[in-house]
Every structure is written in structure tokens, then in C-alpha cells.
């Protein structure tokens, strides 16, 4: 087994690798997006709501993430990451 | 070096592991076989004994007398009747002791000194404790200690019980404050969350529920107080409401969220043991979901939330709380991430508590101290560092690993499989991918200059189909000025991978627990006189060297509400249980501050709590596992200013680093509410788009 090497995609996108692997381009992903301009909603993003005026949450097709990462008015994007309950073992 | 792995106990004391495989919610009304609640005499009182009596009285008896003077009484236990208390005494005249009408004798052991003295047990009326103690033949009298771990122990040990907090408070039990719980499995039918007027839960937002028209952010199901109250009047409340906590399984007893909620804000109405802020209002967001498309044949379909939805949950809670003081508890987390507070989730949480005074977020530190999930070291120019990474035989999960290093450095990574074969080298800024039968089974992404912190990140994904055993990461220094790296293995409750070398137990706190403003809680055992630290409690500091956790609280063997039992309790351990102790205490402080007309910004809230800690055993100053010390609610409360300044409106106490304080210093405008649209005023409803 050998790795096929390519250049990394946009550095603005943080996506859990398991999700990157599992989801296809037409699957929706939930994202938090920090924008440089207040109230700016990037193209192709279905707005869900605002955390503050520069931080929004929404949905986007995974296949559109690359374009989102090239948007100069977008500072960074975080694709939803699975949360866990901290493991507890004993009393 | 052996591999340390931890499994859930059959009884589910470590319920979190088993929880992950169970349905998160269950709207049917089958009731778990209820365990009877512990009945403990934890009653509120601000009264104290007369000085003459207090000096010689057992502190627990003092509290019981204070309880009685406040008009309350003790509940029945297995061996006492209501209004009665079990005692242990040393008496010089056994016959005289037994002859007392107040005494219901238990056992007696005569001492061998020929004096007639004896050690005795008995039950005596609460109203007669002082009279019995004054008898000349009663040498000592102590309340019997309940050996069963209980929530009350943590409340007392942190001095959060009403009797210790003091009589001069303007608030009671956090009344007026809102406690937000972001977790899963809210048992609204447990009597610890009900008052004489109905439910204490203002709203439940089940993010994974079928969409309702009024759901926040346009998804999930929202259950308002009126609907909860209506359901509680029915014989089948869960099916009536359409929401309920998951049933017990052999591996999981009691839902995590109900337990956490009880510690923070239960009133003891069912179990008789109140939590830290028993009068606070409650808003619960259930983050469990089955509609997040976590795909793959082996992925458990129920998720305990998502980082984006977590942000939305906290936004919703603060919006619902409005102008009331509010503290949100998050006993969730992940391992992977930059651990420097720069993720959008952490920064979003920071902004939400900066936005308004009287808001706070408390997060569990995590329980990964012994799991060998963190490795760290230094790469030097032209050389390499090898890290052994053990992937045990898996039961159906992938592995993920996250490496962070300084933005100016350039480090390549080579991955060697268990048989020593190299999968290849990925240079900085490249992505390496391997497929088998059209499926990506190995992915290495080397990202340069993360937009949030400027550092570099290497992520590695290994599919479950690849060989288990010891893999080797070889980090190769191409351009190195700093050289320091940190690596974390993501959580896997069924088959946790671990590092075999370069292990660094510090820096094991959760990756959402590194924000600037969150209060992060470690765990200790409040039932033992030495208050030992919990073996699992994760360590700080953050990757950028900030002191987290800030605080330790009782999280070991905590008995709190057992879902689907109405009145029962169950024992759970974890920093998940420590965090709500801090949350409840912050609610007490916020409620009292509000009652005194004082606004507290997040910096001041943090200072109040962290500057008034009890010293952890054997520790001086901040410690990577203990934080600054043990929670001391009474000390924090005592540090709260007594009154607002004369002639002032609402006094705002701000830390020097707050945005408002900075604005004031610069002559700029004082802070107004930064709404989602940048306008000041009422917040617009979130978009309904999904």
C-alpha cells in the first residue's frame, strides 16, 4: 500500500479526516464559518444562525467546501466534529 | 511497556462507555427498576447553634440542629424515622444512657477499662440532640457517617451547602439564575427537577428530534415548559411529550445528562439530596442525534453531538436566559485539536460569554490522563523522531491522530505499517491518500499555517480495515526553528489506540476545553478524607501554556439522579461530574450577585472562583491536574461584594482584561450587546433554514 501524494486543499478548511473520507461531494456537512465582514453569508451556504456577527453556522455540500475555502471574505471554516462523553471507568 | 485499556464495569458505574452504544433518547414510558433513593439529612439553613453548644458539637450535628431550627426535619433512612438521627456516642454510664427516654438504643461495646464506659450507637430525635449532648455521662456524640457515596458529600466538602454559605445571602439556591445543560438524556420526570408548581425545566431542545416549527436554528424538537408540565400530569410522560431519556442497558445505568443536571441543579425532591443550585431554572439541550450522517458500515449511528451544534446549543441557552444570569455546563469533548483555544468552537464560546455580563461556560477537563493518548517531543533539523502508535484489535472504529507544530517549522511525516513497510512520506503542505477497492483507507493531510493560530497540522486517518498492531510515525525535520510537536489520538471507547513512547500525560485535557474564558474542571474524590485526585482526571496545560484546568471539584463516585426512576440515584465518576459542581456554584454566585445588583463579567466570574479555592492536598500553586485547587463555594461567595455602590444603578464588576474595561480605558463606548446582525437590541430569531 502506497500513498498517492497531492497538494493539500485550502488551509482555511478544518474537516475531521474521518468525515472527509466518509462523505461524498453531494453530502451536506454542518459548518461553523468565521467571516471577515459582519453579516456576510458565503455563497452556497445554507445559513442556520449566527453565533455572533462574524461567526455563523450553516450547511453546505461537501463538494462546495473547496470554493468556500477560496473565498477571501471567509477567515476559517470548521466542519462539525463528533463530540464524545468523556470516558469514565470506575467509581 | 504495557498497553493500558479500560473497560466499562458491568454495573455501569462507568456508564459513559456503554452509553455510546445505546439509544440516546427513548420516548416510551417503561420504567427502570428504581433503586430507592438515599435519604440524607441535607437541609438548608442559615442558622447556627448557640455559642456554648457549638464549641463542643460535632459539625454534622450542628448542621442537623440548624436544619431543625430552620423548620425542616430529617428524612427517614433505612434505620431512622423522620425527625430522627443516627448517632455514635461514647458514654461513661451505659445504664444511664439507655435509660434516657430520647434514646432508641442500637449496639453497645463496653470498654475494658473498668469504668463502665461504652461506645454506643442509637437513634435520637433531632429535637433532643442538644439535650442529650448536655448529659454529664455523654462524653462525645457524633452523627453517624453515611458510608455510601452521595451527592451531599460533594456539596458539603466544597462548602456549597446553605448552612455553610451563610445566613446573610440575598438569594437562595441559585434562584434567579439559569443553568444550561448541553448533554444527552434529560429525565424531566425525575422529581429532582420538579417543584410544587411544576417542572423546573424551562425548555428542552432535542437537536436530534423530529423538527418542530419553533425549533431553534430550524432543526430538532423544542419542548417548552407548558408541554413538559402537561406531560408530567399524564401517567406516561415520556410518550406524551415525545421525548424521554434512554432506558438502562446492562452496560449503562442512568443517562449522563440527567446525572449531570442533578449535580448542578437538582433540588432533591426525589432523592432527598439536593445539588449545588437547587433553586435555579434549567434549560437542557440534548445533543444526541441520529441524523448526522456519520457514515461507514461500522460507525455507531447515535452521535453525542457535534461541535457546530454545540455552539448553537449554547447560543440558544443564552438567548433563552435573556437578561438573567446564566451558566452553561458542557461535559463533552474530543481529544484531537490544537489545544490552544483557537478552534471556532472555543472562540465562539468565548465570544458568547464576552457578549454579556453574568454568563459563564464550564467544561469537563476529560478523563484521559492514563490513556496514553498524548505524545510530545522535539524534532531537530535534519533528524527524525519516531513515535510508536499501537492500534489494538478493533471492534469497529477508525483511528485518527492529530499533530500540531510551530508555523515556522516544516516537518515531513512517514508512516510505517506494523510489518515495517513504509506507506510513504508526506511533505509539509501535501496530502497522501491510499485506497483499497475504491475506498480511502489511509489519509494523511499536512496543512500549513492554520488560519486560526498560524501553526501547522498533520492529520492521519487509518481505516479499521488496515492492520492492527504497532504503527510507527516518523517525523522528519526539514526546516526547524522550534521543533516542538504535540500529537493526540482521538477517542475510541471500544478499542482505544495509544502511544507507546514519547508519552506525555500532561496536556490531556479535551480539545474544546482550552478556551480563554471557559472554566475547566478536574475531578477528585470528596468522600475520602484526603480528597485524592481522580486517577483519570486529565491534565493541562494547554499547548500554548495556559493554566487549565483552573479548578478541581468532586467528580468521583458521585450519586445523583438516575433517569427513569423518578426518585432514584446512580453512581457515576468523571470530570463530567466535576464540571456541574462548578456550574452549580457559579449559578449560586451569579444569583447572589444579581440579588445584590452587581453585574459580573466573565473575567470577574473567573476571578471569583479561581482566586478563592481550597488548597489541594500536597500542592502549592497551580498544578497541571488539580488546577489552582479545590472548589470552595463559601470562599467565593464571601469574596462577592456585599452591596452595589451607593447611588449607582447596577454595578458592573469587570476584570481589567474585559472588552468593556478596555473600551472604558480607551474612552470608547461601553459594551453593548453585539447581536448576530451587529445591531443593538433584541436578537432576531435564527434562520429556519436547514
Structure description:
The complex is a heterodimer of chains A (91) and B (690). The longest helix of chain A is centred in the N-terminal third of the chain and has 6 residues. Chain A is globular, with a radius of gyration of 15 Å. The model of chain A has no long low-confidence stretch (mean pLDDT 87). Chain A contains two helices and six strands; from the N terminus they run E-E-H-E-E-E-H-E. Helix content of chain A is 13%, strand content 37%. In chain B, helix 10 packs parallel to helix 13 and helix 11 packs parallel to helix 12. In chain B, the strands form eight sheets. In chain B, strands 9-8-10-5-13-14-26-27 form an eight-stranded mixed sheet, sandwiched between helices. In chain B, strands 15-24-17-22-21-20 form a six-stranded antiparallel sheet, with no helix packed on it. Chain B is globular and about 85 Å long. The relative contact order of chain B is 0.14. The N terminus and C terminus of chain B are likely disordered. Chain B starts with 14 loop residues before the first helix and ends in a 25-residue tail after the last helix. In chain B, 20% of the residues lie in helices and 24% in strands. By secondary structure, chain B is of the alpha+beta class.
Amino acid at each position: 500500500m502506497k500513498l498517492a501524494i497531492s497538494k493539500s486543499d485550502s488551509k482555511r478548511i478544518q474537516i475531521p479526516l474521518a468525515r472527509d473520507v466518509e462523505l461524498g461531494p453531494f453530502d451536506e456537512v454542518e459548518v461553523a464559518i468565521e467571516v471577515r465582514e459582519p453579516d456576510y453569508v458565503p455563497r452556497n451556504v445554507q445559513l442556520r444562525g449566527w453565533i455572533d456577527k462574524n461567526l455563523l453556522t450553516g450547511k453546505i455540500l461537501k463538494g462546495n467546501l473547496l470554493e468556500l475555502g477560496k473565498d477571501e471574505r471567509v477567515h476559517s471554516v470548521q466542519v462539525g466534529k463528533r463530540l464524545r462523553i468523556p470516558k469514565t471507568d470506575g467509581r | 511497556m504495557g498497553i493500558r485499556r479500560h473497560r466499562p464495569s458491568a454495573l455501569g458505574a462507568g456508564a459513559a462507555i456503554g452509553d455510546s452504544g445505546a439509544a440516546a433518547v427513548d420516548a416510551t414510558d417503561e420504567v427502570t427498576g428504581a433503586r430507592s433513593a438515599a435519604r440524607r439529612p441535607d437541609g438548608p439553613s442559615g442558622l447556627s447553634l448557640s455559642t456554648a453548644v457549638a464549641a463542643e458539637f460535632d459539625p454534622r450535628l450542628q448542621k442537623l440542629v440548624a436544619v431543625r431550627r430552620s423548620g425542616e426535619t430529617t428524612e427517614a433512612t433505612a434505620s431512622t424515622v423522620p425527625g430522627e438521627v443516627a448517632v455514635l456516642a461514647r458514654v461513661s454510664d451505659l445504664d444511664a444512657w439507655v435509660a434516657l427516654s430520647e434514646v432508641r438504643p442500637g449496639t453497645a461495646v463496653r470498654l475494658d477499662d473498668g469504668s463502665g464506659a461504652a461506645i454506643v450507637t442509637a437513634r435520637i430525635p433531632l429535637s433532643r440532640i442538644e439535650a442529650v449532648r448536655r448529659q454529664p455521662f455523654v462524653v462525645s456524640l457524633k452523627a453517624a457517617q453515611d458510608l455510601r457515596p452521595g451527592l451531599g458529600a460533594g456539596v458539603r466538602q466544597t462548602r456549597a451547602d446553605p448552612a455553610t454559605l451563610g445566613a446573610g445571602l440575598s438569594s437562595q439556591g441559585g434562584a434567579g439564575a439559569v443553568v444550561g445543560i448541553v448533554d444527552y438524556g434529560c429525565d424531566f420526570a425525575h422529581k429532582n427537577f420538579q417543584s410544587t408548581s411544576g417542572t423546573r425545566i424551562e425548555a428542552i431542545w432535542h437537536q436530534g428530534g423530529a423538527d418542530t416549527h419553533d425549533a431553534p436554528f430550524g432543526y430538532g424538537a423544542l419542548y417548552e415548559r407548558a408541554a413538559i408540565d402537561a406531560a408530567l400530569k399524564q401517567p406516561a410522560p415520556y410518550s406524551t411529550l415525545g421525548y424521554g431519556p434512554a432506558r438502562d442497558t446492562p452496560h449503562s445505568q442512568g443517562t449522563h445528562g440527567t446525572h449531570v443536571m442533578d449535580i448542578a441543579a437538582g433540588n432533591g425532591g426525589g432523592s432527598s439530596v439536593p445539588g449545588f443550585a437547587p433553586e435555579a431554572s434549567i434549560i437542557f439541550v440534548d445533543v444526541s442525534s441520529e441524523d448526522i450522517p456519520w457514515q461507514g458500515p461500522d460507525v455507531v449511528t447515535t452521535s453525542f453531538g457535534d461541535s457546530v451544534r454545540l455552539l448553537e446549543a449554547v447560543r440558544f441557552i443564552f438567548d433563552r436566559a435573556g437578561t438573567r444570569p446564566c451558566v452553561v455546563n458542557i461535559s463533552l469533548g474530543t481529544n484531537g485539536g490544537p489545544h490552544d483555544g483557537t478552534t471556532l468552537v472555543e472562540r465562539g464560546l468565548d465570544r458568547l460569554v464576552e457578549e454579556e455580563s453574568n454568563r459563564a461556560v464550564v467544561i469537563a477537563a476529560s478523563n484521559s490522563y492514563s490513556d496514553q493518548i498524548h505524545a510530545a517531543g522535539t524534532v531537530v533539523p535534519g533528524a527524525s523522531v519516531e513515535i510508536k502508535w499501537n492500534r489494538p484489535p478493533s471492534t469497529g472504529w477508525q483511528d485518527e491522530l492529530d499533530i500540531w507544530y510551530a508555523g515556522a517549522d516544516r516537518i515531513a511525516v512517514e508512516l510505517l505499517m506494523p510489518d515495517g513497510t513504509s506507506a510513504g512520506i508526506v511533505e509539509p503542505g501535501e496530502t497522501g491518500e491510499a485506497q483499497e477497492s475504491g475506498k480511502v483507507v489511509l489519509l494523511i493531510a499536512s496543512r500549513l499555517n492554520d488560519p486560526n493560530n498560524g501553526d501547522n497540522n498533520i492529520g492521519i486517518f487509518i481505516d479499521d480495515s488496515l492492520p492492527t498492531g504497532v504503527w510507527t510515525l516518523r517525523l522528519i525535520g526539514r526546516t526547524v526553528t522550534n521543533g516542538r510537536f504535540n500529537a493526540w489520538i482521538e477517542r475510541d471507547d471500544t478499542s482505544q489506540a495509544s502511544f507507546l513512547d514519547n508519552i506525555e500525560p500532561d496536556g490531556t485535557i479535551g480539545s474544546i476545553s482550552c478556551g480563554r474564558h471557559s472554566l475547566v474542571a478536574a475531578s477528585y474524590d470528596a468522600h475520602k478524607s484526603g480528597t485524592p485526585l481522580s486517577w483519570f482526571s486529565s491534565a493541562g496545560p494547554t499547548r500554548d501554556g495556559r493554566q487549565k484546568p483552573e479548578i478541581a471539584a468532586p467528580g468521583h463516585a458521585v450519586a445523583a439522579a438516575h433517569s427513569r426512576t423518578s426518585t432514584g440515584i446512580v453512581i457515576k465518576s468523571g470530570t463530567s461530574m466535576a464540571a456541574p459542581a462548578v456550574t452549580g456554584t457559579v449559578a449560586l454566585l451569579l444569583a447572589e450577585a444579581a440579588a445584590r445588583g452587581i453585574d459580573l463579567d466573565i473575567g470577574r466570574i473567573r476571578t471569583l472562583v479561581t482566586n478563592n479555592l481550597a488548597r489541594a492536598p500536597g500542592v502549592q500553586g497551580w498544578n497541571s491536574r488539580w488546577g489552582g485547587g479545590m472548589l470552595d463555594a463559601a470562599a467565593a461567595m464571601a469574596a462577592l461584594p456585599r452591596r452595589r455602590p451607593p447611588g449607582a444603578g447596577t454595578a458592573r464588576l469587570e476584570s481589567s482584561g474585559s472588552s468593556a474595561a478596555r473600551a472604558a480605558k480607551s474612552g470608547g463606548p461601553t459594551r453593548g450587546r453585539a447581536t448576530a446582525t451587529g445591531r443593538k437590541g433584541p436578537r432576531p430569531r435564527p434562520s429556519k433554514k436547514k
